[in-house]
Amino acid sequence: MALYESNFIKLGMLVGDTGNVHDCLVSTTPGDCDLFLWVESTARYTQILRMTYLFDEQDSVVADPDLVIRVYLDARMAEVAGWAEHHRHAMLKGLANRFGRELDRRWSNNMMLSKWLDYLIDARHGFSSASERAERVLRREEHLA
Fold first, then answer.
1. Residues contacting 50, CB < 8 A, separation 6+
2. Which of 44, 64, 82, 99 has the most CB atoms at less than 10 Å from its CB?
3. 55-111: per-residue pLDDT in tens?
4. For 36, what's the count of Cα atoms within 13 Å in the CB-facing half-sphere?
């Protein structure tokens, strides 16, 4: 459960209050691809988000890693509910096929989300006021180091 709680906190650093997100958001930062986040559905205590990069390929646009994230607003947790079947990155291809048991697969998917959120925060991605909050946290950590 600590992993799901950690993912919720990190997602909050990027997005802010996910319960207030109702459409598509785009984060642009130098040195990384544009990051897209949109709401798939919202219920009273849960929200389904999709977060991905979009890549132009020949005659189409490919979403990768195309993560579907289930956010439990009341429990303050976030977990991977699904992701693309086909990946451009070799590491993601390996993770997608590595585990046969459901529990192992969930752990792997949520660890990947955790590491990707770390990367996105370090790359200074953020959506509106959430990016300002992440900047303050990162500056404080750099000051303490």
1. 36, 37, 38, 40, 66, 67, 68, 69
2. 64
3. 888 888 888 888 999 999 999 999 999 876 655 555 555 555 565 677 788 888 899
4. 17
| Residue range(s) defining the domain that contains residue 24 | 2-144
Region of 124 (left: φ > 0; alpha: ψ -120 to 50; beta: rest) is: left
| pTM strictly above 0.85 | no
SS3 114: helix
Q: Enter the tokens of residue 53.
A: 């990069």
Using CA atoms, how far apart are residues 71 and 20, in angstroms rounded to an integer? 12
User: Chain-centre distance of CA 45, in angstroms?
Assistant: 19
| CA distances from residue 49 to 15, 70, 145 in whole angstroms, order as listed | 11, 6, 34
Do residues 78 and 117 make contact, with C-beta atoms less than 8 angstroms apart? Answer: no
User: Which amino acid is it at 125?
Assistant: H
* Number of independent structural domains in the chain: 1
> Residue type for 97, please?
N
Tokens of 94: 């390996």
In Å, how far are 26, 93, 102, 141 from 18, measured between CA atoms?
Answer: 14, 29, 27, 24
